[in-house]
Amino acid sequence: MRRARAAAGSKAAVADPEEDLLALRGEFPILATSTYLLSHSMGAMPQAVYGSLEAFADDWAQDGAEAWERWLPLILDWGNLVGRLLHAEKDSVIFHQNVSVLMAIAASCLRPTRRRNRVVYTTLNFPTNHYFWQVQPGIEVVRVASPDGITVPTEALTAALDERTLAVVVDHGIYVSGYLQDVGAIAAAAARCGAATIVDAYQTVGCVPIDVRAWGADFVLAGAHKWLCGGPGAAFLYARPDRLRAAEPALAGWMSHAAPFAFEERLRYADTAFRFAGGTPGMASLHAAIPGIRRVAEVHPERVRAKNVRQMNKVITLADARGLEVRSPRDASRRSGLVCLNFPGAEAATRELVRRRIFVDYRPGAGIRLSAHFYTTDAELETFFGALDEIRGAGGAGGAARGSKKR
Ligand SMILES: Cc1ncc(COP(=O)(O)O)c(C=O)c1O
Prior knowledge:
Blueprint lengths: L1 H8 L9 H4 L12 E2 L12 H15 L4 H19 L6 E4 L2 H9 L10 E5 L4 H8 L5 E5 L9 H6 L5 E7 L11 H10 L3 E5 L11 H4 L3 E5 L11 E5 L1 H6 L36 H17 L1 H21 L3 E2 L11 E5 L3 H10 L2 E2 L1 E3 L3 E5 L6 H16 L14
Parallel strand pairs: 1-11, 3-4, 3-5, 5-6, 6-7
Antiparallel strand pairs: 2-8, 7-8, 9-10, 10-13, 12-13
Helix pairs in contact: 3-11, 4-11
Bound molecules: pyridoxal-5'-phosphate (PLP).
């Protein structure tokens, strides 16, 4: 009996709860030839993308323009596939090429006045969001500073909202630290001021469970090339149902029409998220994104999240042991899927890591960014730290700090 209990408690007897996830590694060719810790930037490509693109090419090759019969409904089906990951209402998500264009489409639904022309965001938003609003005629930008380059206190952001605010632009996960913003609280504060909330969830969708209904934001935009393993050119916009029904995007096109192939003289907006579609969608990138999105939906963001939290906590422990500066929240509930590690010479070290096919990236001020997806092994994390020790020990990263003292 005692022996049986000891055996049950031994490592060999404990089933690995992540084993089924790691069994999926064979679906992603790059994992066989590299240490891949870059899903916060570009998720690994599923092998099934070849088949998906071939199916698209077959449609086009064999049916020409008749392929629209299948492609048009596929656009909303695709939106609903993504929508399930967001807990979005049916037909409330539209496909587009990228977040920059979607930001412009969402912005074109707002009507600034001389009294209400401020757009509020933080110094840590992704540049695409800064650049767009910086150059909008008649818009006054209010940038809320981060005290540490990592976090943005919710109170600081909400304190900047008032009756002059047209919109607040919230990056759910901050790209240079992984800090998670409290979208629900910010959207509620914005609504009290009569302002719209536009959320960029690119850094979190697929890795952090999202419920857009609970958030109550007006618009949520994101894309598929990070955690959704969907490749470039596949982004999407969600609009809250009341916002969707009322929206008259000034940035419209023939596909925004309720019946695009009727070629009517006057624009009648579609009842669905199609009203944000604008022009002809990039059907190749839409097809390429399907296998990745499906796979992540099947694995489920809750499981991606649980595994990611465990592994990124491990990364922080291993970084602390080496005295690296952790430029991400230590509290996992305030952190997206990535962790940033800084030290003198981090940029040069990144170049050397990538040369060795240990894929991570570098951002100024943040240091090395790395992350774990459902397919990431603990051994890959150890490979990363082993190589980093070697590079820093060899002084190969510009005299990087050594030893285990915290700095
Ligand atoms: C937070 C965030 N938003 C947006 C993007 C991409 O913007 P776009 O789709 O316009 O290229 C990225 C990175 O690629 C990002 O990290």
